[in-house]
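assembly run, all chains below
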Amino acid sequence: MSLLIDNLHASLENGTEILKGVTLEIPAGEIHAIMGPNGSGKSTLSKVIAGHQAYIPTAGKILMDGADISEMSIDERSRAGIFLAFQYPNEVPGVSNANFIRAALQARLPKGEEIDAVAYYKHLYAQMDLLEMDRKFTGRAVNEGFSGGEKKRNEILQMIMLDPKYCILDETDSGLDIDALKIVAKGVNAMRSENRGMLLITHYQRLLDYIKPDRVHVMADGQIVKSGGPELALELEAKGYDFLKEPALA
Amino acid sequence: MTSTLPAWFTARQESAKARYESIPTPKRGDEQWRFANIKQLKFEGLSGVVKDTDTSEIIARSTGLQSPAAKFVFLNDEVISTASSLPENVICLPLAEALEKYSELVEAHFMKQETRLGSAKYAALHQASVKNGLFVHVPDGVEVEGSIEIHHWLSGETTVFPHTLIVTGKSSEVRVIEIFRSTDDTTPGLSIAYKDLYAGPNSGLDYIAIQELNEVSRMIAIKETSTDRDARSKSFILNTGASWARNESLSRLEAPGAHSDMLSVSIPDHEQEYDQRTFQHHVSPNTNSDLLYKNTLYGHSKTVFSGLISVDEKAHHTDAYQTCRNLFMSDDCEANSMPGLEINADQVACSHGSTSAQIADEEIFYLQARGIAPDQARQLIARGYSVEAVMRLKNEETEALILKFIDEKFARIATAGS
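ok done. output:
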């Protein structure tokens, strides 16, 4: 059981290649981190896994538990178990958080089957308590007028509620103060499970103080250039990305 | 109408008839009918044939709030059902009855304002032809709990002239909800409605109109609101039905402290056209008005919004806002917006704006990434877009009722695969 990214290439519509052969396997039960400088393709990788249409996959495969999801639409991938926590979550005016998450859960049910409202709210409130979110939050429009920290917490709440098999967190730590970071980390750690794989995309070692990764990968110029244990993150923090400038070993 | 009509009323009907005949039919090029589909004003085609309608069935279909404070059902301007649990001193009667019993009170308020937004001819036709409607008079200090609900059913190839006259006394409160519907989906009818709203000093008057006529019928709705010292008037118009609907809404801020909210949600599909003309008239200093119109256009539909904020010479310290937003859900729809300002006073805060947009791909991506299919994602975003205006009513029960009509419209759009 794993999320396997196999020699993935992706380009923009204008032909600019962003991902130049990414290979990465995240086994269920593990947390992996991807670090790397700005423009290395980290966020693009997360979007391509989610199925974003602005990027055209030109080669390679994405296998989830052995099944190729490359041809699936964005929403099909989500329902199949991929979750992307956005770096910049969108606002959805006029749609309450409670209704939004409910619509996402409803989309996972067979036609004609309805979500049990009482059980839903009970579950939602329990997860909100874990993330120290005020109850008023359910009635607020999705991400509208939210602080950066609230938006990120909201992403984690959605992630917990949708119970995905593989989570990709795109710079969830950016814009968070230390208290918010701890709460977000608590949510992510609560999701740790032997049935679930997670990929953290981050610039900073700081996040990894709170969420211990099993593996750390370094991405540069559209490829994974180095992989290692948690100590690699510390090394990067100490040396910067410059030491990666030596050519990567194939 | 019966022979007991007051003399003033019949005299005014006579002069209105003459006025109707003397005012020329609006034509292409008239400023107040810019972008309008003038062809829609050809009313001669209706046969006048009215089918027998089972009134008990219509009454059963007249669902609205769980427990309204009063409920009136009209079928082609005839009262077919009334129910009321209003306080005794609140007058809430069919207009025909009110003209007999409270002639002076009706006369003091009935169609006193000049129709300035283009439909003077049709206001005159309404006055000459009006048979019924509802008269609501709330005495000083009375806060009506719950809402007064009016159902207007249009049946057969005919024209109706529903009239609504609401007067709130000093420091009183009332909310009136009107729902306009057709008895079937295929018979074209015409409704020329007129609403007279008077919010007395320090009172609160909420008026909600839900227009869900069948898609072969037409409607002209003229609304004149007068808001007195420290009073708060709030109006909301929902358009989901009719092939063509013209809404003319004029709000006069008569005395210091007056506040007027003008809200509207329209969701046209197919070839539906909604023509909206508004006028925020600040007569007195220290008044404010806030207008928000939201249109969500599907299919080949079309909207016209023409809004004017007018601040009179002495109306200093006016706060006036006007926003019209259009959301395009197809490539074939059309929205025309003409916002305007006319300021003749000092120390005034006014803004007006109009936007038209489609849902951005990134917004759809976010919802899709949560497992929601693209069509449903678009629907959810479009619904949220309307909800923003509905929420301004700040009354849960009313909001829920309006959302029910909005959701039914979205369901019809989804089924039709527009």
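The first strand of chain A starts at residue 2 and ends at 12.

The interface with chain B takes residues 50-54, 73-75, 78-79, 83-84, 86, 89-90, 92-95, 100-101, 103-104, 107-108, 141, 158, 162 of chain A (CB under 8 Å).

not gonna interpret more than that til we talk
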